[in-house]
Structures
1.
Amino acid sequence: MTLLVIVGTIAIVAVTITVGVLLDRRIGLLPRPKELLEAGKPKPARHDAGEAPATAIRARGAQLERLRGARRCPTCREVLVAAGDDERVRYDDRELLVIHLRCPRCDEPHALYVLVEGGV
Ligand SMILES: [Zn+2]
């Protein structure tokens, strides 16, 4: 009796595995190794306009002042406030103005990169 139970259990497991493998080959239940490798690769970072030197916003005079009060926190959408003095940096042979901002709600620092037309 015990032997019959053991053999029966093994048979049920073997049939279940066989059916599962056949189903997976036919309709692809499990992700393939190539898909898993693709999913594990890091995605290139994407920055919105002004969030990185490469995506600096072009502005001049009055536009520059409007930019300061118009940025919102990407996390909580609160309007960002000034945090410290502006900074000048060189990036890709261009001089950029870096406006330092801070979210009053999250207290997270943010930087706004601006290419000031007519020079910084
Ligand atoms: Zn925030």
2.
Amino acid sequence: MAATPAPAAPPTSAGEPWLFGRGGSPAPRTGSGRGGHHALSGLAALLFDRDGTLVEDVPYNGDPALVRLMPGARAALEAVRARGLAVGVVSNQSGVARGLLTREQVEAVQRRVEALLGPFDVWVVCPHGPADGCGCRKPAPGLVHAACAHLGVEPGRAAVIGDIGADVEAARAAGARGVLVPTSVTRAREIAAAEESAPDLLTAVRELLAGRWAPADGSRADRAPTDRADAGAARTGGAPKGGALKDRAPADRTPTDPAPTDPAPTDPAPTGGIG
Ligand SMILES: [Mg+2]
Ligand SMILES: [Zn+2]
């Protein structure tokens, strides 16, 4: 009787994403979240981009031996799991469509990531190419929608952490919160357009877990109105469509807009014991 599946992502003419999940019927994660962490303001799930966010970006990598964690990834995941939030991965893997990757290779890399970081509640992978017009390839919202549906989490109670603009745009388009953790390949305009960013993965997670989180409806009680006035204005009236902020000039931002993140405190050994 509990077989009612979570609503799937909207169907696309170009095919569906690959979903690898644990458990058949997840309990809805709504309200104040699991474990009674009211300070989380309803944050129920964290979704991570894979390449350039959890692990180093090796283009079209199908070799588990080449998987290397990004700094702080292990500590970040430990912190999220300690708070009882669901964790997932949303990843574009256009190498499949390009004939450079097989599903078996994608799964092998996935297993290696889990060996290093522990299990994720859901993986959702877009195997399509940019020209396929699918609804799942970020910045489209399909991966985020599918992950949230599997987890039983409303997108408004999920956050996506990624290293490029497409990640945060996918989050916005899905109604989730997007946090950018730039790398050397992140474009300056993507950094400028990001409403939220952090210098590294652990800082991003700590900001979210510390309550610097707001539902996607635009309320941001944890920040002073003058703190990020441009972001607040952008949120008013609903979630922007994907790409809506892509072409915003930096001048659109408040000149006094502070750095989006507080200075990271010195952390003990964020990379843990895995070399
Ligand atoms: Mg990436
Ligand atoms: Zn796709």
